[in-house]
Amino acid sequence: MEYEVKKYTVITGASSGIGYDTAKTFAARGKNLVIAARRKDRLDTLKCEILKKYPAVDVVIKPVDLSVLENVYQFYSSLRKLRLETWINSAGFGNYDSVARQNLRKIDTMIRLNIEALTILSSLFVHDYKDVPGTQLINISSAGGYTIVPTAVTYCATKFYVSTFTEGLAWELKAQHAKMQAKVLAPAATKTEFGNVANDIADYDYDKLFGTYHTSQQVAAFLLELYDSQKTVGIVDRETFSFKMYEPLFPYAGSSAHNQKVERHAAANEKVLLEGQSLSLQSREWDI
Ligand SMILES: NC(=O)c1ccc[n+]([C@@H]2O[C@H](COP(=O)([O-])OP(=O)(O)OC[C@H]3O[C@@H](n4cnc5c(N)ncnc54)[C@H](OP(=O)(O)O)[C@@H]3O)[C@@H](O)[C@H]2O)c1
Fold this sequence. Notes:
Elements: E1 7-12, H1 17-28, E2 32-37, H2 40-53, E3 59-63, H3 69-77, E4 83-89, H4 104-129, E5 136-140, H5 153-175, E6 181-186, E7 190-191, H6 194-199, H7 206-209, E8 214-215, H8 216-228, E9 233-236, E10 243-246, H9 256-268, E11 272-275, E12 278-281
């Protein structure tokens, strides 16, 4: 008798804010979940909430600090026994300060989480699942990943990275006729713990400081809209707060001839070695 293999949606940063509500939104769709963040108590609460409403859903908890590279590899390896369907990188944080004054301990952690962990997890997931129909990678960038916001220059730069990396990956997957879709969600101000963390305070007041903002439930609904669409970018307009979906937005140097070259390069370069903890992409020099 044939039975269907259980598939999972992985959500990092699921202990709070956008990740937390995205987990509930995907559970409502009947999706089994892997939820990850540092605070295990919050993940336990989320799991209880989900199981109360959707008892048929399987929820796997993974407490992990993703700002530590070794943990990132271990976290991915711990999921190898599961069949994954969707990967959502929501774990991330911001910082408001000038470049001259910014706290470099906080900044180096932010770069490791927002850029390093997201890149490694995306690459491993793409390596293993790019040819599996129905798979999706959704990376959470920001409206600040398309527009530079004063006093948040370094944070915005990390999110420009997320946007360009994910848009570039989307082009690459299309050129390779891969089955996986890569997408970017770029929310604007959203009432979460983000404000507290970015400002190093305990009671950041979105109502006082922002005329308009979204709730994390609204942003989770945008994410689901992007998930259901064929578009690559879902972005909240910083002026109107409307949500719109687009094809990739950054200038792209690819042409159809270039894409064929990408395809040939990818075919010649299929061999990705996972050596111990490190991912080594066996790559040849080629002109881009
Ligand atoms: N809120 C906004 O206005 C806004 C706007 C645009 C984009 N975004 C982006 O949206 C994403 C989600 O943020 P949010 O607004 O939902 O903020 P949030 O409520 O602060 O959630 C951030 C999540 O990231 C997790 N996280 C932080 N450091 C981590 C680490 N070292 N290892 C593992 N997980 C870690 C947190 O969990 P633990 O603390 O338990 O680890 C939490 O679950 C972020 O990428 C953020 O940059 C937010």
